[in-house]
């Protein structure tokens, strides 16, 4: 492909490295043509070169001329396309794994075009998914691979590697067994990424209450560390998985500007992380916050401690659903729609998502706990509902999801009925031997770790 509109690729030698890398992400390009004021090409600099320089400790304030490649490959104007292709295929100064681009120069050594081999994959396509072996993360990793991205999962595997085991042989997938709270690990994986989707942490109110100190360490302070690493390596887009539980209790239909009222440590830790992200947003670091509804549906790392999933399991195995209270409202979100929303954030125009908070779900999917139970019971024969009145979970909120649809055109693709059916079908096939096994429950798994140290 011969591109003749090349003004966006041309940079002055004095441009700071920090500005160059920020520009490359904004323009969605991977190369700088470093030129003199009158246009003569002095050097070539790729996004990969800049990342390597930062990894080597080069000051971000240094000019791009200090790290540019002066031994570049170029071709004179009029070179046949077949010859340009040969030059592009030679891995000269661009290095292994880089999609080579060949500047085409006039007689005064000024670039007039840029040749590159057409590629199906976007060169800016490496996504770091923290917590990528988890309930949402494993599903997201699968979707990213199917859509052509390279995926690095950073996960300490508290729930095992089962969620990503099938992905380990994929050529565009890599798994790093490590902790987001470990700076040495972050310094190894963050520079390899173009986008970061941060899902890691302790999830759910019961699990978060087990060890409050650990919850704050993993959900808040580890996020601060990840922010620092991303800013240092100029990761422009950072997608954070928050929760609608930050709204707590309210009788109103809530939007992103509504008063926040977190009533659990889990919700508070999410809110603290949100504030940290927005506090650090700048011209080079563009976080976007996704407040997920209560997630449900089938995943490679299955959970049966979520309201739709556990009610479905009980209806299937026990022919009974137990409801405590029932009048509490919950916004529901399929795990696949959660994954789709994450991908939508790295694909959307930067101006539409940077520094924004989006509720993720559909307004029609606000249900009371009682209505969820009735819907699920109606899908099976002979299922009874047992009603209790010993309400321990005080969360009660309905959420408006218009903003994400208006800003980026995102709509959910799944229904609660469909989610119930896919879980029931999987159980019919014998996929889950014991839905009550602690491996399907965040609280029970983490409690076992705290008690046994394993």
Low-confidence stretches: 91-99
Number of helices: 15
Strand order of the largest sheet: 10-9-8-11-12-14-18
Secondary-structure-based class equals: alpha/beta
Kindly give the count of domains.
Answer: 2
Q: What sort of overall outline do the alpha carbons produce when their principal axes are compared? A: elongated
Return Rg in Å: 25 Å
Explain how this protein is built.
This protein has 454 residues and is an alpha/beta fold. It folds into two domains: 2-116, CBS-domain (Roll), CATH 3.10.580.10; 126-452, NAD(P)-binding Rossmann-like Domain (Rossmann fold, 3-Layer(aba) Sandwich). It is 35% helix and 22% strand. It is built from 15 helices and 21 strands. The protein has helices at 17-27, 47-55, 81-89, 135-146, 183-189, 205-210, 212-232, 265-280, 307-317, 335-347, 350-353, 369-377, 402-408, 416-428, 442-452; strands at residues 2-3, 10-11, 31-35, 41-46, 75-76, 101-105, 111-116, 126-130, 150-155, 173-177, 195-198, 237-243, 249-254, 286-292, 294-296, 320-324, 329-334, 357-360, 366-368, 384-388, 396-399. The strands form six sheets. It has a seven-stranded parallel beta sheet, with helices on both faces. A four-stranded mixed beta sheet has the order 1-7-6-5. Helix 4 (135-146) crosses helix 10 and helix 9 crosses helix 14 (416-428). The longest helix has 21 residues, at 212-232. The chain is elongated and about 85 Å long. It starts with a strand and ends with a helix. The model is unreliable at 91-99 (pLDDT under 50).
């Amino acid at each position: 492909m011969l591109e003749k509109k090349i003004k966006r690729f041309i940079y002055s030698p004095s441009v700071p490295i920090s500005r160059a890398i920020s520009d490359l992400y904004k323009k969605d390009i991977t190369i700088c043509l470093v030129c003199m004021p009158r246009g003569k090409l002095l050097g070539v600099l790729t996004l990969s070169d800049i990342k390597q320089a930062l990894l080597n400790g080069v000051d971000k304030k240094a000019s791009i001329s200090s790290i540019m490649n002066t031994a570049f490959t170029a071709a004179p104007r009029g070179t046949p396309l077949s010859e340009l292709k040969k030059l592009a295929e030679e891995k000269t100064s661009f290095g292994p794994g880089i999609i080579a681009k060949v500047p085409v120069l006039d007689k005064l050594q000024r670039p007039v075009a840029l040749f590159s081999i057409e590629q199906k994959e976007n060169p800016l396509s490496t996504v770091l998914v923290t917590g990528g072996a988890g309930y949402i993360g494993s599903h997201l990793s699968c979707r990213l691979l199917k859509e052509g991205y390279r995926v690095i999962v950073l996960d300490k595997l508290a729930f095992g590697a089962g969620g990503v085991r099938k992905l380990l042989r994929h050529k565009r997938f890599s798994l790093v067994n490590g902790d987001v709270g470990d700076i040495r690990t972050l310094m190894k994986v963050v520079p390899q990424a173009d986008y970061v989707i941060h899902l890691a942490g302790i999830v759910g109110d019961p699990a978060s209450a087990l060890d409050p100190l650990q919850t704050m360490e993993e959900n808040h302070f580890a996020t601060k560390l990840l922010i620092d690493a991303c800013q240092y390596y100029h990761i422009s887009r950072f997608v954070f998985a928050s929760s609608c539980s930050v709204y707590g209790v309210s009788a109103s239909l809530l939007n992103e500007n509504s008063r926040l009222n977190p009533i659990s440590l889990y919700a508070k830790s999410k809110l603290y992380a949100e504030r940290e992200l927005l506090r650090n947003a700048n011209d080079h670091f563009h976080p976007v916050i996704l407040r997920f509804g209560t997630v449900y549906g089938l995943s490679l790392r299955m959970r049966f401690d979520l309201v739709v999933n556990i009610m479905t399991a009980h209806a299937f195995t026990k022919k009974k659903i137990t409801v405590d209270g029932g009048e509490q409202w919950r916004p529901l979100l399929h795990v696949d729609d959660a994954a789709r929303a994450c991908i939508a954030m790295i694909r959307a125009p930067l101006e539409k998502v940077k520094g924004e908070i989006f509720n993720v779900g559909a307004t029609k999917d606000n249900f009371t706990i009682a209505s969820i139970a009735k819907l699920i019971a109606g899908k099976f024969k002979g299922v009874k509902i047992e009603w209790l009145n010993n309400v321990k979970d005080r969360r009660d909120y309905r959420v408006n999801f218009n903003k994400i649809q208006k800003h980026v055109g995102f709509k959910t693709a799944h229904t609660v009925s469909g989610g119930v059916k896919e879980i029931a079908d999987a159980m019919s096939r014998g996929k889950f031997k014991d839905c009550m096994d602690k491996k399907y429950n965040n609280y029970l798994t983490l409690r076992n770790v705290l008690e046994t140290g394993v």
